[in-house]
Amino acid sequence: MSGAMVEALGVRKSFGSTEILKGIDLTVERGSVTSLIGPSGSGKTTFLRCINHLEKVDAGRLSVDGQTVGYEERGGRLHEMKERQTARQRLNAGMVFQRFNLFPHMTVLENIVEAPTRVLRRPRDEVSAEAQVLLDRVGLGNRGHSYPQELSGGQQQRIAIARALAMKPKLMLFDEPTSALDPELVGEVLDVMKSLAEAGMTMVVVTHELGFARQVCDQVVFMDGGVVVESGAPADVLDAPKEERTQAFLSKVL
Amino acid sequence: MQKQPVPDTGQIPSTVPGDSIEVVPLRHPVRLALAVVLVLVAASALWDVAVNQRYHWDVVVSYLFAPQILTGAGLTLVLTAVSMTVGVILGTVLAIMRLSANPIVSTISRGYIWFFRGTPLLVQLIFWYNIAALYPVLSLGLPFGGPSVAIGSANVLITPLTAALLGLSLNEAAYMAEIIRGGIGSVDRGQHDAARALGMNGTTLMLRVILPQAMRVVLPPTGNQVISMLKGTSLVSVLAISDLLYSAQIIYATNYQTIPLLIVASLWYLLMTTVLTFFQNKLERRYGRGFDAAPRRVRRPRTGAAR
User: Fold this and answer.
1) SS3 for B265?
2) For residue range B1-15, what is the model confidence (pLDDT) as tens digits?
3) pLDDT attached to residue B299
4) At A226, phi and psi to the nearest 5?
5) E strands of A16-109, at which residues?
6) SS3 for A220?
7) How many Å lie between the alpha carbon of A127 and the closest alpha carbon of chain B?
8) Cα separation of A236 and A229, whole Å?
9) Mutation for testing the A interface, residue in B198, B283, B285 having most A CBs under 10 Å
């Protein structure tokens, strides 16, 4: 299917009476890297979680790879999907979290092999071989039998990226992947993400690393108060922001 | 930044200012004196027990491996094993029900736990034993007086052993449900997100990610439950089931050697508890993997905008 990888049209989301997303319009092209920036509480993370249906969209339309997320269109109406369909749809996107969220009771290799074998029901040998390749790719080929607890934050996050890639997603979502890391460990994670972008992976990254946004991203989206304030090429949004709110935010961060 | 406290290894620090200064460890004279007194008290108590003729150690030894006692101990083990197994399985189901988003389902679980924890086990046992008074004929069929098929007389089906197993299991499930609910609640929310993002459905998520991690928190109190169940089975003697304690009681009812036979029973309870504790420790080590390997380094999320 052609068209954009992610398309959002007037996406709204509330938690109780608080509206977090107030109509998000956003397009992420195939093979492009988009970063979502903005102050805390601007709805970046919530929007990212909506793409993977970890949060349910209340109104508007959000589609990934041409499919409406979490809903099925039948007879001119949107029907909410069953859990099984939602789970299958989530396979489109791999997700990396701020707090890594590796499974602490499994070794690194078990973490990576778990979902491909249990969810996709692929043979263990084949998946293990692929997992080893992925581990080499993130530079941790010799840590397969360690437990996450024994690794540094940067190493854990690289494992988390390998775990998501093992499901062969069409799209990768990163939720502040370097915010929980000691400063000297940020670089190793960004390097892995950079090489992933160079390999042509479509990526949406919620980040505070403006250097990364400038260097790697095709599109930068500045969000505030649940809306997209400004979006465009990094050079435009980061260096010559048109909106006052963007200017104010960037002047505090830079 | 918060500084990591230097672990107290009990060793003399290797870098003493001015290398040749001698270090004199602190002495604990009171501690030593107290230890001597305690050892003396314990030794005298043991000596007293050993030489006191009225303990009838000869009787204890002669009944320790009596067939009746061994059968009783076996039955106690079977009662514990079956009731615990049913209790853990039903308790897991109740815990998951209790956490359900469906209010009816969680209320039913809540009600079950309320009822079975709120009434004495002894009453529940006697109640099951006398269930025939309420339902003389057990049958399977449609509710509200619809057609049904009789299975048999309650008096025949509910033997003392069935009543004991029903009472112990259903009671245990209520306690286990709360323990397991606590365990499930102790697992980080991020684990749910990660598993969902990998496409896992609710069952895989529970069985592969949440429950194995909950085990670490669930095991120590469950060990407690097994041990109190092992001894709690002695309550079934009211149903005239010859478990370990009741077997001992039968013997001393005829020979009047009450204390020696209670000692025999206690020795067996102690032995079984010891073995169970051993297995509990092994299991705890198994499910502690990945948690106890290294001290956890706390990383505080950095709020990016501030730097």
Assistant:
1) helix
2) 444 555 555 555 555
3) 43
4) 85, 10
5) 18-28, 33-37, 59-64, 67-68, 71-74, 77-80, 93-96
6) strand
7) 15
8) 13
9) B198
Smallest CA-to-CA distance from A220 within A34, A4, A26, A47 is with A34
Q: Please report the beta strands in B77-195, taking only residues with DSSP state E, as ranges in sequence order.
A: 137-141, 148-153
> What phi, psi does B104 have (nearest 5°)?
-65, -45
Partner-chain contact A176 B212, CB within 8 Å: no
A220 phi and psi, to 5 degrees? Answer: -120, 130
Is A167 within 8 Å of B199 when comparing Cβ atoms?
A: yes
Residues of A whose CB is below 8 A from B293 = 147, 149-150
- Provide the shortest C-alpha distance from residue A35 to chain B (in Å): 14
| DSSP assignment of B217-264 | HHHHHHHHHHHHHHHHGGGGGGGT---HHHHHHHHHHHH--HHHHHHH
Of A30, A164, A10, which is closest to residue A94 (Cα–Cα)? Answer: A164
* Beta-carbon contacts below 8 Å between A and B: 109
Q: What is the pLDDT of residues A16-73, one digit of tens each?
A: 999 999 999 999 999 999 999 999 989 999 999 999 999 999 999 999 998 899 888 8
Contact partners, residue B158, CB within 8 Å, separation at least 6? B128, B129, B131, B132, B166
ipTM of this predicted structure = 0.91
Interface mutation vs chain B, best among A42, A48, A98, A101, most B CBs within 10 Å: A101
Q: Which CATH superfamily is domain B57-140+148-287 in?
A: MetI-like (1.10.3720.10)
Helix (H, G, I), strand (E, B) or coil at B304: helix
Residue type, A188: E
Which chain A residues have a beta carbon less than 8 Å from that of B299?
A: 153, 180-182
